[in-house]
Amino acid sequence: MDKANIIYVEGSNSDRVLIENIFKYDYRFVSCNINVCLDQAIKNKPDLFIIEIDDLSIEKSLELVRHIRQKTEANPSGLILVSNNTGEDLRIKYYNAGADDFIGKPYDIHHLVYSVKLILSAKEAERKLLETKKSSNKLISTSIRSLGEQGTVMRFVQDSMNLDSYSALAKEVFKALDNLGLHGALAIWLDKDTPFYSHGNVTYPIENDILSVAHEKHGKKIQTFQNRCLILGKHTTLLIRDLSDDLETSGRHKDMLAMLIDSLDMKCSQVSMTDKLVKSELQLTQAMLLTSQSISILKKRTVNSREKVKNAIDGLTAQLEADFMSMGLTEEQEELLISRVSEAENLIDSEITESFAQEEEMEKILKLSSEVRWQSSK
Asked: Where are the domains of the chain?
């Protein structure tokens, strides 16, 4: 398998030696100066550019990114920008211009290596998607005209009706995008750990940042920048990478996507609610099982206590009968009889008190069980 071509475009404060030592063994690595041979490097159409932009103004660097994107449109090259000046606004500007990642200095080597591998893989997948898209454009257009874009949304609603996971819903969203000839990324914000999904396993690190920022600011429902757009729902955000250049077609697509996101929002809410109900039901079942076990134990204790009371009473009765049958009682015998009666009474009181205590504990457990059931039904 051929090694990928990486061109490192260095500035005046270059880290070329460090970068070259990292990549020269696994890739065909070439470096050039940003002011000398950049145009020739672009003509070579490498698989990936790593460009230090500190020597350029923001406008010049944005112009450079757009220029590279225009020149490599037919065979997309990966593009990583490196700078001492990083910030969320700059990340968004460079992403809109066409950058795949924006890395600050000093380098996090693991981040850089991971980003290079991920972007090269994504660009290879993107090239295959472009090839597939070119060969199937005619078929897609015919399909859209015959079925209608609104039918795509209705099919999503129908096909997602019985789905019970976010990943399954994401697949249905991407299936709808396929029918519209679009590709994108999706984020769902209902759970603590936000799941991000990317169409066709094409993942760019910066897209997760774009989705997060859009969700936090929550501006207009549809936000367009060049041939990309964001569709913001209450619980979901959809990023489209490749809107049509035709204004009528892109406008129609955005209307359909807004309907799609509204439907997805409702379905995601149902999935989230179902998950919570399942967890509550599990907690209720565990609580009821514990209650049942505790009640069973208490019942056994109560039966044992009452049996002891019965035996004590029977013993007392028998002893009294024996004592009263004796002919004449001495003073000592009377005191003994009174002592035994008193002992029996104390024993009975003790057992009855324990029985009452156990029944009170049972009532507490039953009350707790009722509270758990009430909480789970809210």
From this structure: 5-125, 146-274, 276-377
Average pLDDT of the chain to the nearest whole number: 79
Under DSSP, the state recorded for 199 is G
Which of these, 298, 308, 306, 300, lies nearest to 358 by C-alpha position?
298
Span 17-76, pLDDT tens digits: 888 888 988 998 888 887 766 777 777 778 899 988 888 888 998 998 998 888 877 777
Provide CB contacts within 8 A for 38, sequence distance 6+.
9, 32, 64
Read off the tokens for 256.
Answer: 């359909």
For residues 212 and 87, give the distance between their C-alpha atoms in angstroms, rounded to a whole number.
Answer: 15
Reported in sequence order, the residue ranges of 99-257 that DSSP labels E, i.e. its strands, are 101-104, 184-188, 196-198, 222-225, 228-232, 236-240
For 241, the token pair is 């990478």
Chain segment 181-240, per-residue pLDDT in tens: 898 889 888 777 778 888 876 777 788 888 888 888 777 889 988 888 999 988 899 999
Let me know: does 318 contact 341? Beta carbons within 8 Å.
no
117 pLDDT more than 90: yes
Question: 17, 68, 14: which is closest to 41 by C-alpha?
Answer: 68
Residue 185: closest CA among 228, 121, 135: 228
Q: For residues 175 and 280, is the Cβ–Cβ distance under 8 A?
A: no
Phi, psi dihedrals of residue 114, rounded to the nearest 5° = -65, -45
CATH number of 146-274: 3.30.450.40
Q: Please, are residues 145 and 137 in contact by the beta-carbon 8 Å criterion? A: no
Name 242's Cβ contacts closer than 8 Å, sequence gap at least 6. Answer: 182, 183, 227, 228
Strand partners, 23: none
CA dist list (Å): 181 to 132, 190, 268 = 11, 28, 24
What sign for the dihedral angle of Cα 255, 258, 262, 264?
A: positive
Chosen CATH of 5-125 out of 3.40.50.2300, 3.60.15.10, 3.40.50.300, 3.40.50.970: 3.40.50.2300
